[in-house]
Input
Amino acid sequence: MKILIVDDDPIVREILNQMLKPYGECTKIDSGAKAFVEYTNSIKSGSPYKLILLDIVMHFNNNDFLDSFSDQNMDGILLLDKIRKLEDEHHIPAEDRAYIFMVTSRNDEETIKMAKHYGCNEYITKPLDKTHLASLLQKIK
Output
């Protein structure tokens, strides 16, 4: 299974990578803008990601790649929305869409409702629980 990990914190990216590498091939990305480009390319190549883990709050650094991208300040909710719209545009059936897990320290009801509204499959709060994550992965075909 192809897995995309999106988090601005390199330590969290590596923890998720270590937890998930028994389940498939992981790609780690540090920003929403780069992740959207990566996911778009995976769809165009015919080899989309099956699982995407998104942080909601990402801090942005000012680098050349993001300077040229119109959504350089893309947080996890906006990225989630853009991914689901992209899947709609490409007529990807529900059963073939990416499973998207929000992985965040935010646990307020409003943020959870917003993430669910935009199409996340699961909402996981930090600190990460390996057993809980493993149980959620069992739902993915």
The chain has one domain: 2-137. Residues 62-71 have pLDDT under 50 and may be disordered. The chain has six helices and five strands.
